[in-house]
């Protein structure tokens, strides 16, 4: 009877797995282990491995000789280029789960074939890493007319650095942990989930299942609401002055680029949970879920740094279910539809601010 029960359970699990893979757009998490190389920038910040073929959330990814994501292994930048645009960012700008031509960078390349667009984004980066990349590239006399940083709301969390430094798999789905170093998530269900993830065996099992079982991802998605859970965790950082000190790195970048007369613009990308019609904060139902955008915008304006809050564009996107602008159950990574919205924002910034400063 035990064997029969096991066989029935295995059959049901297999049927569930096949059903989820067939009927949903759930994406496997995880990234190829060969994708990251230590100490690529300034002798301390990791980066994408140069000239590599790998996978990120199922999408095949290619990098060039600098480790920047490109459409394919044969891609060559236009030379001479009418504009040279450097994209800074973490996994949101890297575009996991989406083919490169469908990312906002790929769309920008297609619309402006005379522009050289360099996507230096790397999974798990935070504000400190962006400063290292700019410092390293400018020291190598790399020339850019425009630098655009796609800022993710977890860029004030450096939780993932320890994982990358140990050459561990980059955490998912957020790529930078959950911001819990600044404070635990507020609802009890999220607290339980985060506590379990700190148990070694559970963490390893979670990593394995999210790369091999879409049924697991689906059940976890509908039962724990990862998009809400990650937002609430990362929101806590915006109440923590110590965490917000990482924003000073953006001023470092701006000052370095001003000296070279290079335009610098920060685009703030929203979380999926913020776009829900009735998004609230458990400890303060009337609280402002857009506090992170406000904090970052006020900081940037105080330092004279150009910025655009892309949240407005996402709110007004011509799609009723805003969650479809993101990967399924994902807190912040954009779907192909979301990349089209971000492309419109990026293109506007790139065109209106492409002329070098005087």
Which features would summarize this protein structure in a list?
358 residues, Rossmann fold, globular
Architecture overview:
The protein is of the alpha/beta class and 358 residues long. It has a domain at 33-159 and 238-352: Rossmann fold, CATH 3.40.50.1110. 41% of the residues lie in helices and 14% in strands. The chain is built from 14 helices and ten strands. A five-stranded parallel beta sheet has the order 7-6-8-9-10, with helices on both faces. It has a three-stranded antiparallel beta sheet with strand order 3-4-5, with no helix packed on it. Helix 3 (104-111) packs across helix 14 (336-352). The protein is globular and about 75 Å long. Residues 160-175 and 177-186 have low confidence and may be disordered.
Q: How are the SSEs ordered, and which strands pair?
A:
Layout: H1 2-23, E1 36-41, E2 45-48, E3 53-56, E4 59-63, E5 69-70, E6 83-89, H2 91-94, H3 104-111, E7 115-119, H4 127-139, E8 146-151, H5 161-165, H6 188-197, H7 200-212, H8 214-224, H9 226-235, H10 241-244, H11 248-259, E9 263-268, H12 291-302, E10 306-309, H13 311-315, H14 336-352
Parallel strand pairs: 6-7, 6-8, 8-9, 9-10
Antiparallel strand pairs: 1-2, 3-4, 4-5
Helix pairs in contact: 1-8, 3-14, 4-11, 8-9
Low-confidence stretches: 160-175, 177-186
Major sheet strand order: 7-6-8-9-10
Shape: globular
CATH topology of the domain at 33-159 and 238-352: Rossmann fold
- Helix count from the secondary structure assignment: 14
Number of strands: 10
Structural class: alpha/beta
CATH homologous superfamily (4th level) name of the domain at 33-159 and 238-352: SGNH hydrolase
CATH class of the domain at 33-159 and 238-352, named Alpha Beta
Order of helices and strands: HEEEEEEHHEHEHHHHHHHEHEHH
Q: Estimate what percentage of residues fall within beta strands.
A: 5-15%
Helix content: 40-55%
| Residue-averaged pLDDT | 83
